[in-house]
Amino acid sequence: MKARLGDLAHVRASRSGSQLTLAVIAWGPAEYAILARELTVDRFRAFLGSGAPALVGRYDLPRLHCLIFVLAGALPEPASLLLPDPGGQLLSSRLLLLEIDKEPELL
Questions:
Q1: Does residue 32 sit within a domain?
Q2: CA dihedral defined by 30, 35, 37, 41, rounded to 10 degrees?
């Protein structure tokens, strides 16, 4: 069964220099387990498409039910200030629509 990421978590974006950080915060431990399994760096990079930066890191914070994605060099300054989404808020809203498998794959 599939669900939108927004049914499992909420997302916050922040920017520091040329680095963009997206925090995916699950609603609870069950939702976190699904996201930790399904929302890999490769899946996140595929979501970003061909414009994905070379360095994308994922940091797991299981006690907070949170996955942190760091996009290094995503927004070079100062030109990034002229982009329509310099802080990543539109990207975080779009991420909420990503479809996630809620059920584990059967072997």
A1: yes
A2: -160
Can you list the pairs that 77-85 forms with residues at least 24 positions away whose Cβ atoms lie under 8 Å? Answer: 77/17, 77/18, 80/18
Domain assignment of residue 64, given as a range: 2-101
Q: Does residue 77 lie within any of the structural domains?
A: yes
In a domain, 76, yes or no: yes
Question: Which tens digits make up the pLDDT trace of 9-49?
Answer: 999 988 877 788 899 999 999 999 999 999 999 998 888 87
Query: 42: buried, middle or exposed (CB in 10 Å: 19+, 13-18, 0-12)?
Result: exposed
Residue 106: inside a domain, yes or no? Answer: no
Give the number of domains in the chain.
1
CA–CA separation, 21 and 34 (whole Å): 21
Residues 40-62 pLDDT 10s: 999 988 888 776 666 889 999 99
